[in-house]
Every structure is written in C-alpha cells, then in structure tokens.
Protein 1
Amino acid sequence: MRAVTILILAPALSVMCGGAGSPYELPADFDWNTPVNQVLFRHWTKHECVPAAMASDAVFLRRVALTVAGRLPTAAEVREFLADKRPGKRAAAIEKFLNSPEYADMQAMRFADMLRIKSEFPINLWPNAVQLWYRVVRDELAADRPLDAMFREMLTASGSNFRVPHANFFRASADRSPRGMAATAMLTVMGMRLERLPEARAEKFAVLFSRIRFKSTHEWKEEIVYTDYHPAQLEAVLPDGAPVSVASPETDPRRVFAAWLTERGEEDFCRAVTNRVWHWVFGRGIYPVADDLPMVPAGEAVPFCPELQEFLNAELRTRHYSLRHLYRVILNSAAFQAASQPGAEARTRHFAAYPVHRLEAEVVVDALASVLGGYDRYMSVIPEPFTFLPPRTRAVTIADGSISTGVLDNFGRPPRDSGTLDERNAKSAESQNLYLMNSAGLSGRIGRYCRGLQKRYRKENDRLNGLFLELMSRYPTEHERAVFRAYQRSMARREQVQAWTDTVWVLINSKEFLFYH
C-alpha cells in the first residue's frame, strides 16, 4: 500500500532536483571574473556550450553542506541563509563548512577509502592500527597539513604500525610483494595503474619497493615496518622511465621515489589530487576515470578541459598543497554553483550544468538519521577483537572499512580492498528502493518523527514548512502545498494524520533527497 501511495503522490510533488517551478536565482555579487571561471568560460565558449543558470540559494546550500560536510543543512541554517541578503553569503557559507569539524570527517572518510583503512581481510591492519591511522589522517586534514608532506611521510615511514601511524601505508597493501606495493604507491599518489606501464618499466620501478620488510613483535598483531639493512645495489627506474641507481640501506629506495614525486613528478602528483577532488565534488573527474590517469594523455583518456587541469595543478602547488584551498577554488566556481539540468548531456559533459549523482551510502544513512532519528548501531562482525562504536555514531565517521551494516552495503559503501574510486557503488538498485519504501525500522522512525513534528509546529502551514526545510532544505512550493492539502482532504478526518507520514515516505524516496543535484 505504501509503495502505491508513493507512486501516486510523488509525481504531484516537485521532488526533482530543486523543486519544479522554483525560480533559479542569479546572485548579483557572484564573482564571474575569478581565474577559475575565466578558464571555464573560455572552455564553454570554445565548445559552444551555454552554461546553465545558477542554482537557487536553497539548492546551493544543500549541495555545499553535503559535499563538504557530508550532512544536510539544518532547518535553522536554511532559514538564515535564505533570509540573508548580504553580498558574499555563498562564499561565507563555503568557508563555514570548510572550517567545520564535519569537513575533516568527510575528507577522512574519502582518504580512508583511498588508503584502504580496514582491519580485516584482505588488508589486515587490525583495530589498533586502524584507529590510530584514521585519527591522525583526520587530524592532519583538519589542520590542512600540506599534502606533499603528508604523502611523503606515508611513503617513507618506518617503525611500529601501532605507534607510527603512516607506517601503515604499505601494510595496507593487500599484495605486499614489491610489485604489489609499487602498484599501491602509484595508484595512491599518482592516480595511475602500474599495469598501464610497459612490463619492463613496471618491473624495474617495483625494485624501489623491494627492500621494504615487516617484522612481528610480541604485541598482538603489531608489526615493524623497516628497510632491509643488508647492503644491496639496486638498479631501478622511476615512473617516467629515468634510470636510478640506489645503494641501500645508506639510501632508502622509498625516499628516492618520494623525492622524485615532489620534484620531477610533481605534475603527476598534483594531477592525481585535483582529479580525485573534482571527482569527490562532481561524481566524476576531469579525466574520464579520475584514478586511471595516463602518462601521456591520448585517445579517450584526456581531460575534458586541459587548461582547467593545468590551472588547478598550479593552484595546488602555489598554495603549498592545501586541500582546503583546492576545495575553496572549486566550490566557488561557476561549475559547482550551476543548476543541474537532467537531459542536458552536452552541458553536463563540460560541467556547464551540475552533474546529478547519488549521495554516498554513509551520507544517505546519516541524512535519514539526522532528520528522523534512530542512528544505526555499528560493530565488527569478526571478534579480533569485537569493536563497538558509541551510540549516535555518524556513518561518515566510521574509521574501519570492516565495520559496516547491510544498509550501508546495500547503498554501495566500498569494501576498501583496492583503494580505487570505482569500489564505491553509486548506482541505484531495487534493493535500495525496497528498503526506502518498506523498511519496518524506517516506518517506526517516520512515525515518531511526524508525532514530534506535530508537537514542534502547532500550525499546519509551519509544520509543512518545517518538514520540507528539514528533509529537502527548502520551503515547499505553492504547488506542493496545494497537492498536500488536496491529498489530505481526500482522507477521512480521523485518517488525515497519515498524510504527513505518506509525505515523508514520498520525499525520502525522491531523487531530490537521494542525489546531489
């Protein structure tokens, strides 16, 4: 019956990408002449691509809160932002979210996926190392530690994986052979796949990682990461094919690669970072696949806008590898603040319209919990040892890739086995629809939420405003108000309370709720 209600009521409500009929605003104070916008406009002009109008204030606020902080804006935040007529309020909102604790949480989740932070098979970092490494990564992201320094330490760290957090970088490789660790390093810091190199070059590059050793201690699951102390003369090549001779252990071969990465290989490092961040913001990279970058762009493996790629690389370098600054540049761009236009494939392909894409599994679950209440409980399924996370833990903050739930897995949370972006499944599935339409747990939470809504808002118009502000981050349109009232009047008086729960079911099943738009 509930599914039928959703199918009947949903088309009448404006639950598609910003609310049908809601006017797009053109902020008079938006700076169209920033360097990044000039690059984008040159590209759009070259390809005869007329950019979409700007997204409304409500759409923008929801978009930036979810992208940066992994959460919905509160009803109070939406009211305040929509009522604010001061110039520069969008830039101010971006700064607010970039400097929030939730920013560090959201970036730590993304880095944990990339770094394969997981206690169990096939990574086997174990809980002590997982919690230590995750906490340090999050703290460094919160402090905006320069990314070149952060990754250089990961590539070269030695010591106990329980006491030297970044020593877990190579331990988090499922394949600890020299070739496997070379592939891990190349994917993580260059966004490239080792198998794309010529076979002879791949083998010689792997030599740089052939001296990494792991030694167990008497502490449960602890390992020491170190460079083999036996003398050896290594003949290897760097990713660009340049030969290098290394006398180990006087020179740690890992340091040779790390030095190359931030000197001659700096462009490859910057390109890997900027493509991942663009992917995290828009759902796809500047290149077709953001972490399968070619040595030399050719064929279909080219950036949609080479000038933009070069510009963002330069921004990252000149601002001392600040991740927060890179986000700031992208979020203040006309591409991020453009309206979404489903069906406008040419515009979307060139990012002249915002590409609609699904929320991450953790963000979906947290969004439902933050509005409806009833956060899920998280614990490990393998007793080595049992790990119980505190009540009201946000899914975005789960450090361990081994700790999940059926709902998170259903919505595509990655297993963190390979560190590739495509491990996260952002596709919609029938099993997700069944959960969102028929979950008994959701039904109870929605009932409690609607009863609380009635207590908080005595007037029906205020109640409808509150419902939309909390779930959709905007006010309902006049059309939606009329549809709701007509639906409510179609019921017997004693049953009209059901209109509220039915409306919540409709809204949480809408594309507007489940997608970045």
Protein 2
Amino acid sequence: MDYTIKCLSIIAFVLFASCNEKTESSKNAEKERNQYDKNILNYNITPKEPFDKSGLMFSDQGAWFAFSFPDSTANDISGFSGPFLMTQQNGVWSSRSLANFNIKGDKNIKLIDWKTSLQSQNGFSSHLEQSFQNETLRINQEITYLSGHTALQKTTITNVSNSGVTLHPSISGKLFDIGLVLSSEDQTIVLSTEKSTAKGYLTFPKESVSLMTTGNYYNAHYETLFLKPNQTKEYLISQTFIFPEYSWEEEQDKIAAMDFDSILQNRKIEKQTQLEALTENRRQQFLDDKYAEVLAKAQLTLQNNWRIPAGEIKHEGLFPSYHYKWFNGFWSWDSWKHAVGLSYYNPDLAKKQMKLMFDFQKEDGFIVDCVFRDTLIEKHNYRDTKPPLSAWAIAKIYEKDPDLKFVKEFYPKLKKYHYWWYAKRDHDKDGLCEYGSTDGTLIAAKWESGMDNAIRFDNSKILKNSEGAYSLNQESVDLNAYLYAEKVYLSQLAIELELLEDSKRFISEAETLKKKIQTQFYDPNDGWFYDTDLEGTTFIKGEGSEGWTTLWANAATKEQAESVKIKMMDSTKFYTKVPFQTMSADHPKFDPLKGYWRGPNWLDQSYFGVKSLRNYGYDEEANKATIKILKGANGILGKGKAIRENYHPLTGEGLHAQNFSWSAAHIILLLTEN
C-alpha cells in the first residue's frame, strides 16, 4: 500500500477515537495545584500611566477586565493593581488601584505600612492572594471572579496582638484620566464613560458604607470596629464591568447571594480539573514536572485572553494577546488554532471559539479575517480570509468531545468555506489554489497567507479572478496542503454524519490533489517543497516553514518526507537553538529581528514541523526537537515570564507580543498530542 494511502487509513481510524476518561482528582490535588500553577506568571506591576504595558494581568471567566499585584515601587497601595479595562481603548488601566483598603486607628493614626508589612503575593489560575502583617494586624486579601462581569475581593483582618484595637476601615480609589466618570447611588460606586458602552459598579456586599465622591476620587467608610486579640473580621467588595446586553440587576442578585469561599473553592476545582486534563495526558517523554508547569503557563495564557460575548461578538473566544493593543480582536486562523488547544481541556469553550468566527461567514462561504467587539475602535477586516484550518479544528474538537450535533451544525459551513477557495482563489482553474484578496490589494493577499512578509511573496503580483475575488500570481504549497488535509477531515466528518457520497468525493479529491502537490511543489534537486508560478513550471525558491506543511498534512511520499526531514534537522538551516523557524538560517534574507515572517520562530510552525516528523515515523527526532524548542525559547520553561508571539531562533530571545494565545495552544499540542 502507498505510504500516504496508509496514512489516510490511519487518520481515518484514529481521528475520532474517543478520548480517555478523566481520572478522579488525586488526594494530593491541592499540592499539585500549588506545584504547577503557583506564580507561574509574574503579575507585579503598579501602572505609572493608563497605557502602561510593562507588566502582566490576571483575568478569568471571560471578563473584559484584569488585575495585577502592586510591585515594589508602590508604598501606598493596599489592594490589587487595576483593574485593567479591555472594555475601552483596546486596553487601559482605570487606576493604580481602584479598591484600596485603608485601616486607621483613633486620632487618624496609620495602623499598618503596606509596603514594609507585605508578606507574600501568590497568583494561581483560580485567584490572586496577598498577605500583610505587622505587630498588630494580619491582613489577607484574595480576588477571584464570580462571572465574566464581576470580580470579588475579600479582605480578612486579624488582630495578632495581645490587646484590643479600634479600627476605622475604609476603601478608596482614584481614577486615571481616561474618560471615566464617578458617581454614587444606593451603596454603589458607578463608573461610566462615553468611550465604552460598558458600565462599572463597585458594591460593598453585607456591609453598610458611607460614600463620598469628588471628581475622579471616591471613599467608602465602614463602621468603626473594635477587634479583640485573635478576633477576625472579613470585608467583601465586588467590582463589576458589564456591557448593556447583560442585566446589571441579575448580576446584583448573584453578588448578593454569593458566598466568597464557595466561589473560590469552585474556581480552584475548575482550574485543577482543567490542568489535570493536560498534565495527565502528556506524552511519556514529557512527564517531568517542568513540562507540567509549561502546560499550566499555556492554560493560564489562554485563560487571560478569554472574552465573553459583547458588542459585535456573539460567542466567547480568545484574543491573540490582551497585552498588545492591536490584538484585542478575534482572527480566523488564530481561532482555529486556539480551538484545537482548548479542546484538550475545555472543549465547550473550543466550540464557542469556532462559532464566534463562523457567525461572520458570508453566503458564498467566505470567512472574515478578523472581527472586533467595537467597530468604532477597529473595523472588521473583510479584505482577506486566512489559511483553511477550520475543518482540522472541528475534527480535533470532535475527537475530544464526540458531539454529533456540533458536527452537524458545522459541516455545511465547513463544506461551503472549503469550496469557496476553488470558486474564488483558483485563477487558472487547475485545482490548485492561490492566496488572494477581496479588494484587489497585494498587501491583503499577503495577509491572507498569514505569513505577511514571507520572502516567497517578495515579487508577487495580483490578478483578478472575478468581481471581489483576486489571486496572487503563484500557487502556494502550504495552502494546498491545508486544503488536502481539509478534504481528509471533511471526509471523516461526513462519515460520522452518514454522508457516504460526500465522504467518497472528498477522498477522491484528496487523492487527486495529493498527486498534484507531490509533483508540482516538490523540487527533487533541493529536496524541498516550494510555491510555484501559476503554470507550475518555476519554483519560488527560499526554504521556509511552508515546506513541511505537506508532511503535516500527510501529503508527501516517504522519500520526499525523508529529504525534508534531513534539512529540518540540519543545524545550519532549521535545527537552530529554537528549531523549525519560518525560514532557513542560511538564507541571505534571514533576519529574525527585522523580519516578522523572515526568520522568527513561531510556535505554530514549530508544532507543524514536529507533527510532520511524527506523521512519518521520526518520533526520536520529534521528541528531541520538542525539548529543544521549549528549552531554547527564553521564558517558556520556568515561572514568571510570559509566552511570546515568536522567538529569535538563534538566541532564544522572546519577540513581539507577550501572552500569545496560539503559541500557548501549540505548546499544549507539542506536549500532549499522540
């Protein structure tokens, strides 16, 4: 049997195998949680101004706002930094600390110095916590999310002295000048702005306060308290930022009825369950604890980029990066990749991520490049789409969660999108597609590849196919490899839906396309796959990561795969400090620091490379490459640093955006995919 036919058979057999049942939580669940996700990211930042992006932020439940810990520069903050609002201006700090807890004694005497009394700050995927203590008081603070609208902050004060003490507690906050207006009503601080439809509310559940607002400052005084030795008092506040499509009245009811300790415990269990789904399904080669920490960092990165529906967005999904202001939206091929990573521990969110983008599908099948909550800030981009990986994503989700209703909903949409490529991006109608644009611009056509400034597009030109449909004057190997894989996945989805004629058609088309890929795009002299001109007679030279997508798709012959593997494992080309970067290190245009897709290592491309090796039986090379990728990329292993958008393949330096979702998603695939 031909090797690639055999691969098709294997794919058909394993693709929809039911996943292993989750094991019960171990007796040491809390110990494991502390071991793997405690302080996995460093959240210390006291924002100096509204757009300060020098630190990381924590969020959960899809909230559009986040918090951090005050850093060593803060001597007057007794709460958590923020919140950082993604409800306006593509991310802006509302305050250095909007809910500062103040404790004074009689005669306005300051009872605690917050900076010198700080004992600990610990971040988990479930919550943030910090503690302070001096000779008189011990103060513990915790913040967790009730919902995608509300964060809950509990402050616990204990008298650790031998004498009683009188306390005059209050909470105060001062806003940055970002257009927020403070007012008060019914024991609630209200924050509103013309720059967003979202409203903010600070409430003080279970306690009566005396409120005062002046300009951008508020103060909420609690009743005077006398604490005996060893006596404890708890104070709760809620911080809500909610869009008008949700009910503030219903959220108020939830706040009034909540029990903080129960909410926090539920969050701990929720996060531990998710983390176990990842750590307990690692490949055998990656059972060391350091890889469990990497998975915890990946999971938390995706969590911090998670957003609930708002404005134009009707389903939950993930930003590429909340940390970079131009990535506060939702991109199509990012979404496919996020969804596959999410499917390993949160298939429900993975499904919603897919629905988010398909909500914007055009009647002819076109999927928009990117969409945004507020089009007054940024417009949706209909100038191009992105590489076709959506059927792969749906198939992987179904593999983890065999929900036939979900497949039935998506199958006709996937099919329509798949054939859109042949209707609108096959200039010469030879069954091989090109990247292109809807507006006839060359730049949008390059964007459509997802590899914006890759060297293979340096001399490209744009051609008109029909009204609103344009192609580059070259046929791309990665695009057609993706389409080949899509045909295989669509065939399997059709089988699940008992659409046998559809399945046969897709398999037949896949076989035809595979032969074209093997003959047109492969240069036997170089042992590499390249883009070609439309006629298929001239290779567009320059070894890039698109060369191994054929192996990822199982569309290469065994002999072709062997030749590609040799170059991939060559230290002068792709087997660098961080292996499998976007172009060969020995190319004259290789420039990781100045070339976005001209040398940096993107972890999605690295994953495609590792998976390519595994598909053809090169598991030893794949394992070594995975270890080298994670070790070489600065900050992936170990605690504190964020996962980056891409990395310098020779130095390991993290490049561009921090907290990058598809990097995190592909780390999950590198360590867990079988």
Protein 3
Amino acid sequence: MVKDKLKIIPLGGFGEIGKNMLAIQYRSDIIVIDCGLMFPDEEMLGIDLVIPDISFLLENQDKVRGIVVTHAHEDHIGALPYVLPQLNVPVYCTRLAKGLISVKLKERKVSESKVHALGVHGKITLGAFRIEFFPVNHSIPDSVGLIIHTPLGTLVHTGDFKLDYTPVAGVTTDLGKLAQLGAQGVLLLMADSTYAEVPGYTPSESVVGEALGNIIGGAKGRVLVTTFASLISRIQQVVDASVKYRRRVFIVGRSMTENARIASELGYLKIPPGVLGNNDELARTPREKTVVLTTGSQGEPTSGLVRIASGGHKLIRLHPTDTIVFSASPIPGNESLVNRTVDAIFKQGAQVFYGERSRAHVHGHGSQEELKLLQGLVRPRFFLPIHGEYRHLTQHALLAQSVGVPPERTFVMEDGEVLEIDQEGGRIAGKVTTGNVYVDGLSVGDVDGMVLRSRRMLSRDGIVVAIVALNKQTGKLVGRPEIVSRGFIDMDESREMVEGARDLLTQTLSNRRTHSVERGYVENETKNALDKYFYDQTKRRPMILPVLVQV
C-alpha cells in the first residue's frame, strides 16, 4: 500500500524575485500560500505586470481550499485581482493585508466578499490543514509566518521576515513560538532566502529613522522621499521626522495615497492632526517646511518621482535647494532605471541621498546570521529555501547544511517542481505546468513568448514594410513595390539601399515560376529576399512585413 505524502509545489518565487505562490497538497486538499506579482524586466517590452500561471490550480479547482496571505507586499498579493476571478476560493490574511487587497480588487471590479481578516495569532482549518499565524517582523506591519499542522507533521513557513529588536511598528518576530515548535518537532521548514548571500545581521529600522531625521533636519529646502507605496513603516518614519522638525507632509501618487489612507484608518499609521497636507496646498507651503512622499524608487517610467525628475509633473518642479532621498533598494534588473532617475535629478542641481551609504533604507529580510539562528530554533527534519533567485536558494541550503542540516534533507527547487515528503524522506517527483502570465494593459495572458520576441526584434532592428501590388487575374506584379521603414534606416539618407531593395523585389516577384496570387507564397518570397538583402547591407535583421494589394 502506497503511503500518503505531502506535496510541496512552488508556482512562483523559486528562482526569481517576486511572483510568490506556493501550493501544498495532502490527498484531495490543496492550500495556496501567497499570490504575488513580479515587475517586468527590460526584455519584457510593453508588459505591465507578470503573474503566476495557475493552470495546476485550475485543473484541481475542486481540491483548492483557500489562499493564505503572509503580508501585503505586491509580490505576495498583487496577482489576486487576476487570479480570483478564475479561482473562486476564500482568501485569509491579516487586517492590513485585507485593506490593501480590497483596494486592488475594487480597482478591477472584483468582489472582496471572500477575503477574510484574522489577527496575527489567527487560526483556520482548511481541509486536512490546521494553520496558525505567528507574527514576524518585516518592512510592512501585520506580517505573519505560518504554522501548518498536517497529518504527517508540522510545517513552518516564515513568509518574509527579519529579526529586528527595535522595530518601528513595535512587533518582533516571535522567536519563542519558533523555539517551542522546534522542541515539539518540525517536519519541514520553509524560509525566506532573499538575503541569504548577505553576511551578518540586517540592520534595525531604527537606523533608518535616525538617518531620515538627520537628512530632514539638515535640509535647507524641500525634502522629497521616495519609497515603495506599501512600505508603511517607512511612511511612519518620515512622518515622525517631519513632526520633529515642524514640516508638513504631502503624499504624491495614487497608490501611496490610498495605502496611507487604509493604514491610517486601520491604526497602523499614526499621523498627528495638521501634519498631512492636501496637494493643492503644496505650492503655498514654504519649501523649508515641506516634505513630499512619492513613488518612483524603482525608476518606474510613470511614477511620481520620474515625472518630477523629467520636469513633467504638474505640481512639483525641482529646485537646487531640494533634497531627494531614495529610501528603497533597487529590485534586481531595475538598477539602470534608478541610475537614470538619479542622474536626471543631479542635472537639475538637487542633492540626492541614495544607496547604502545614505543609510536611508534597510531591507526587510534576514541576513545569514539570522537565518542560522532560525535553523537553531526550529531544528527541522527537512529544509526548503523559498523566495529568491536560484543562487539565493542554493546559498541558503548551504547555510543550513553548515549548521547541521544533512544535505540529503535540503531541497533546492524551481517553479513547477513537486516535492513529495513524509517522515521517512523526500524527493523531487515530477513537475506541473508553470510559467509567466503577462499583463499588458487590460489584456491578461494574451501576450505570449512569440509576441515578446517580435517586440524585441522591433526594438532592436525596426520594421520594413514592403507594399506589393499584384494583378488579381494574372498574378503579375503591377509596378514596382514600395518600401517603408520605421526604426531601421533613415529613408532619406539610405535612398540607394531602398532603391536596391525595390529592384531586388521587382526582379524576384517578376521571375517567379508561378504567377499565383496565393498570399503565403508571395509573402515568403518577399520576406526571404529582403531579409537576406538587408542583412548583407547592414548586418541587421529588421522585421519584414509584406502588404499585398490586389488590383
């Protein structure tokens, strides 16, 4: 008789930063942990967001008991508005997460009736799984880890966490609970790997508060602070420093404004009366009495700070006395966008604080010594590093092995792989369908790899349109083809090359063996002739688009 096993199935966040989603299955019950998005890299032209492929969950929809959310960052909740219309299951999270999720669901006209809020010590039962929340410290309030009781043993999922003994929100990671679990026995530990490469300990948020206070207190003019819209603790630190130095705070950007409103209503953000100003008061408030909070820490083209840096913002123009503070680290792949924004600000004469030397940001993830301490407290039988690129997962596995976890009990996985585990052992057993689903404007999933390849080709080498007129009775060429180029060559400066292409196409289509007007044949002849011709002339391959006209 085959013994039942637990199946651990990552659908996103393994081998990448963001798009976190993990399924756990026991017999006919499946629970899902987190449902996040990932921001596109520079190769994903025209793409707004990337979300997980949930084909596996849709194929097993009758088994999915619910989605459990660890905290309210985009890489853990951002895909919910796109997933819930397809997967009609309840969502369980903390109060702040529910508030921020509700805003996102309303934007896409998705019902929030299935989103349920629990306390940071909340408990739920979903099928064969009994789940307990426990508080962890992260860069957003109401973050939790998960204790998952199963018929085969206890699982611990840390969510994103760090060990901060002087946190802004006053909540520390519950080490006592972790130690208690370790004494009772933990089958599998799943722990955040994002900063597994970083030695030592992650600095406390108190360091950032002190640095922001020094910057705001010493600034001669207006201060602009850019950070993530969901980084509520950082917004609180900016507010606290502004109160201390008698400045008013203005929040610019829809997402940050909405998040601050929800956090204030729920009591997670404390802003004294009279500190927060309306944006129509901004122009009348003296610069030396102003602090502006805005999005754009990742150099996003449509964000508030990027529009300010380019001179295109309707409310704010930079002045040489202004001070701009980047209170966030660049997400891998965004470095060039951030550097471009910093350069644009420097060109306008303003002062910029950015990078580690400014001490205006610390990350919300545990570094190596914290991860080692976690292993010592939990003492798991098996270990699975989660959340991070493949090198982060590998480094975290090696770190666990250095403190005594046997190599055969650590598993480094990629999206889609299935880990089967019980008290006796574990193994990678098969794979499910996973991948990226691209959000492009209102379109979800309509853009595939072929479309992206075409966009990359257009961005590199441009397009050539060949307009060919054929007699619809005889199939013979009528006149010489026309050539139009965009993004490939300058039509005026390359007249000789264009005329050569027209001559070649005239000869090719006039001398073809059959004068059929069959569209596919003529298009292929046109593409093949022009592709070789332009490559020989330029060593580039523009996209060739034949347009056939029958006259």
